[in-house]
């Protein structure tokens, strides 16, 4: 048997319906909603795509995931408390452009109370995006930039290339946040981002090195990183996003309740 094996869109939907039946038989009225998400929900799945389902169960104490291969192709079933799934949809970070849209266009297989429509209707506001952009820049992008610069100074070409690839993923996440857009998939994100209205200068050249496999010249990579970084700083300034503190911050208020 071919492994991993090919599967058709209809085969995935047939399995999804069978899983929905099993889930409802096992958990009865506890099941609030079941839906297919990802490429299968959008009818964009390909031969080796996996099947992804979300099951929503009020009262569930913690998230659970079941992953397996059957007939040579992969299925993933996630079991969500409804409040945690909603929080997942709302969380804004560099992963949001890749993750945030996964529950925005669910193919509902069981949804008597319109749960999926309510999840899809959520849209963060401008202030939320601005705060998320600052957190993403300070908490992830600038940290990864520092690691790239350390790698470049070390003279280790392999370390530099790996750090460069990390920065390109950050760039795609930033592009999604800047334009408040979700990607269809990680595999197509580099192409999708080129259609976005707001991109830092140097974005296309930064991504081209990875997409076109041009990672052999350390000096050229460093030049592209620095050009992109200048573009990021320019966009942040134009949007009024402060990236540094004027003084040492006070410790934050903490919650010590039990």
Figure out the total of helices.
9
For the termini, the CA-CA separation is 54 Å
Structural class, please?
A: alpha+beta
Major sheet characteristics = 5 strands, mixed
Q: What would you call the shape?
A: globular
The H/E string reads: HEEEEHHEHHHHHH
Domain unit count? 2
CATH architecture of the largest domain: Up-down Bundle
Strand order of the largest sheet: 3-4-2-1-5
What is the CATH class name of the largest domain?
Mainly Alpha
Question: Mind telling me the C-alpha Rg?
Answer: 21 Å
CATH homologous superfamily (4th level) name of the largest domain: Nucleotidyltransferases  domain 2
Textual characterization of the structure:
The protein is of the alpha+beta class and 258 residues long. The chain folds into two domains: 112 residues, Beta Polymerase, domain 2 (2-Layer Sandwich); 114 residues, Four Helix Bundle (Hemerythrin (Met), subunit A) (Up-down Bundle), CATH 1.20.120. Helices cover 49% and strands 12% of the residues. It contains nine helices and five strands, in the order H-E-E-E-E-H-H-E-H-H-H-H-H-H. A five-stranded mixed sheet has the order 3-4-2-1-5. Helix 5 packs antiparallel against helix 9 and helix 8 runs antiparallel to helix 9.
Q: Secondary-structure blueprint of this entry?
A:
Blueprint: H1 9-27, E1 33-37, E2 51-56, E3 64-70, E4 73-80, H2 82-90, H3 96-99, E5 107-110, H4 115-120, H5 126-154, H6 157-179, H7 189-193, H8 203-211, H9 218-239
Parallel strand pairs: 2-4
Antiparallel strand pairs: 1-2, 1-5, 3-4
């Amino acid at each position: 048997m071919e492994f991993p094996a090919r599967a058709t869109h209809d085969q995935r939907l047939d399995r999804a319906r069978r899983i929905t039946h099993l889930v409802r038989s096992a958990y009865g009225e506890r099941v609030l909603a079941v839906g297919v998400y990802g490429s299968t929900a959008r009818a964009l799945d390909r031969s080796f795509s996996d099947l992804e389902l979300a099951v929503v169960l009020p009262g569930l104490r913690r998230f659970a995931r079941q992953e397996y291969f059957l007939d040579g192709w992969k299925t993933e079933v996630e079991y969500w408390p409804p409040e945690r799934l909603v929080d997942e949809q709302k969380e804004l970070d560099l992963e949001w452009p890749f993750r945030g849209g996964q529950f925005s266009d669910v193919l509902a297989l069981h949804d008597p109370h319109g749960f999926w429509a309510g999840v899809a209707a959520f849209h963060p506001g401008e202030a939320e995006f601005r705060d998320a952009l600052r957190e993403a820049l300070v908490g992830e992008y600038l940290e990864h930039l520092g690691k790239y610069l350390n790698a470049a100074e070390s003279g280790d070409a392999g370390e530099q290339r790996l750090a460069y690839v990390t920065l390109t993923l950050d760039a795609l996440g930033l592009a999604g946040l800047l334009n408040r857009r979700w990607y269809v998939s990680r595999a197509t994100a580099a192409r999708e981002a080129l259609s976005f209205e707001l991109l830092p200068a140097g974005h296309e050249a930064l991504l081209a090195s990875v997409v076109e496999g041009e990672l052999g010249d350390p000096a050229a990579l460093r030049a592209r990183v620095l050009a992109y970084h200048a573009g990021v700083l320019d966009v942040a300034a134009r949007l009024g996003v402060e990236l540094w503190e004027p003084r040492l911050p006070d410790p934050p208020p903490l919650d010590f309740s039990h």
